[in-house]
Write a structure and sequence with these properties.
Layout (H helix, E strand, L loop, with lengths): L6 E3 L5 E8 L1 H10 L12 E3 L3 H8 L9 E8 H10 L1 E2 L9 H10 L2 E9 L5 E11 L1 H11 E6 L1 H12 L12 E3 L4 H6 L4
Parallel strand pairs: 5-6
Antiparallel strand pairs: 1-9, 2-4, 3-7, 4-8, 6-7
Length: about 200
């Protein structure tokens, strides 16, 4: 199946919302500091996900070990756009690169991108892709220091929604509303295989 490859996200004029799932220690610290603290490992890559339902699929609605707390992180669009400018796909399926060019770009970047089938509330694949963006090194430090505007703990809501979902009573209108985030730069679109 050919998936629609666009970034679906909740955003306004200044911010775009991404999601992450963590254990309670990292999550509580992040909420208190409004960035990530000493329990967050800056030497590992971290993945941000604009698709709420993809993260629900990945974390099994916050029930997987070390993914019990669901955080909504509002980041400045200007910083998010900088990330996209550096992003390289995790596999060489972009028409922008030959194999060796992709390898060089992959080795040199601090931002990785991969597309996975997006999901519905029951975890079934739908006909669009969800983007995941991996950050490391200097870009991860920028994310922690200057990109984050606000961190919100969605864990209580996620638990409530999951109970409603399991009972067949979840109204999807209550979930985050995501729409296509405009990526107009054709170089980025080509490199990230967006269509």
């Amino acid at each position: 199946m050919e998936y629609v490859k666009e970034i679906f996200a909740q955003y306004d004029k200044q911010y775009i919302r991404v999601y992450q799932a963590y254990n309670p220690v990292i999550a509580k610290e992040a909420i208190a500091l409004q960035t990530f603290g000493e329990n967050f490992n800056v030497n590992r890559m971290t993945w941000i996900k604009p698709s709420f339902l993809w993260l629900m699929y990945r974390s099994n609605w916050g029930t997987k070990k070390n993914q019990e707390c669901i955080l909504a992180i509002d980041i400045y669009q200007s910083e998010f756009d900088k990330m996209l400018k550096k992003a390289v796909l995790t596999s060489p399926d972009s028409t922008s690169y030959t194999g060796t060019e992709w390898e060089k770009a992959f080795d040199e970047t601090t931002v990785y991108c991969q597309w996975d089938p997006d999901r519905n509330i029951n975890g079934n694949a739908i006909n669009r892709a969800a983007i995941q963006i991996g950050l490391k090194g200097s870009t991860l430090r920028d994310f922690l220091d200057v990109s984050i505007c606000h961190i919100e703990d969605l864990t209580p809501l996620v638990k409530k929604w999951n109970e409603q979902r399991k009972n067949g009573k979840l109204n999807i209108k209550n979930l985050p509303v995501e729409r296509i985030y405009p990526v107009k730069d054709q170089t980025i679109r080509k490199r990230l295989n967006m269509k």
